[in-house]
Amino acid sequence: MPFTANRAFKAAPRLLQRAKGMWYWDVDNRPILDATAGLWCVNAGHCRSEIHQAIMEQSRTLDFAPTFQMGHPLPFQFARRLIQHTPVGLEHVFFTNSGSESVDTALKIALAYHHAHGEVERILFIGREKAYHGVGFGGISVGGLPNNRAAFANRLLTDHLPHTLDLEHNAFSRGMPSYGIEKADALHELIRKHGAERIAAVIVEPVAGSAGVIVPPVGYLQRLRDICTAHGILLIFDEVITGFGRLGTPFASNFFGVVPDIMTTAKGLTNAAVPMGAVFVSEWIYDDIIKNAVQPIELFHGYTYSGHPLACAAGLAALQIYENEGLLTRGTGLAIPFEEMVHSLRDQPNVIDIRNLGLMAAIELQPKPGAPGIRGMEVMKLAFEQGLLLRVTGDIIALSPPLIIEEEHMSQIQQKLVKILQVVS
Questions:
Q1: What is the mean pLDDT of residues 51-60?
Q2: Pseudo-torsion of CA 25, 31, 37, 42, nearest 10°?
Q3: What is the model's pLDDT at position 233?
Q4: CB-side exposure of 351: number of CA atoms within 13 Å?
Q5: For labeling, which of 29, 85, 92, 382 is most exposed (least CB within 10 Å)?
Q6: Which class does domain 52-324 fall in?
Q7: 313, 320 in Cβ contact below 8 A?
Q8: Model-level pTM?
């Protein structure tokens, strides 16, 4: 099983059998309140009939169509709908099947752009410590989680910016922390170390999700943007988690007012009903790759299931829900009560930090002496027993509920967490 302590799981399995709205039910028919939108992905709530109907109808007419040297209308329709919500300039879409594939695709597009531009020496990528960019070889190379790459060799040529988590200065920040913009200046040092002419791109999550909701300091992302622009380095935002309304805007780049050159997405793209990812590319990158290509095939890259008919049908239906119900911006109105809810836990046992932005938050716990991660695992297991689905990373509890959450659900999450933290203490 993926990212699972398999031996422990088989000894005491946690199995979900159905879901609806904000809730799962386990195999014993116990309700489990979903505080993590599955895995950051079920933004419109579970088992939406509109998506189910779209998938079923599509499967009757076109179950699969190859997209090598031919195509079908749905990916083009979906792409046109999606770019109505992306920042200006990100006007081309390449469909994948997951966030990991989106990241590897983005890295390839960056290399292809520089090659088409005649800068073939730009082959180095800059990631960031504590970053998660999926599990492909490209993603683990630019990612900053050592366990994800420790057993795997033959990675890309990379270096890493320092992470921005700073409990000494920013503990219990509400929203973007005020301290730490200067950490973006580490990019100047990496440029001096490697040479700007060798760096293809910088890739960051606008808000680092999997490492525990690490919110960027005020001005940090804009400074990265400015440095990249000054040196001809592409900037890639990994919005697999933050895309599709998580911060109260369609994408985090809308929220921060910083436009990347390439943007990766997945998860909420189809409300997780069918696996799918999408990479958004700037007009000028697309033009350079297409116009300067020597071979008839301009980009030697793709997947059997790119733009799959069922995935496109699910994505179009999910996007319609997002638009009809205002879910891409609903988080703006819920951000303050959500913030109040999570920060009300500040005085609970072992809580050493709480951080939040939009509808995502982290509660960091003091590790047990000599046993990091054990307290977090205890919280996760007890939460499941108490009817609450949480995501934990080490000793960090991550919250990212479906965007349909109501304040009554927030109250239930808060009450359950108080009880759980008291017991685990």
A1: 98
A2: 50
A3: 98
A4: 21
A5: 29
A6: alpha beta
A7: no
A8: 0.97
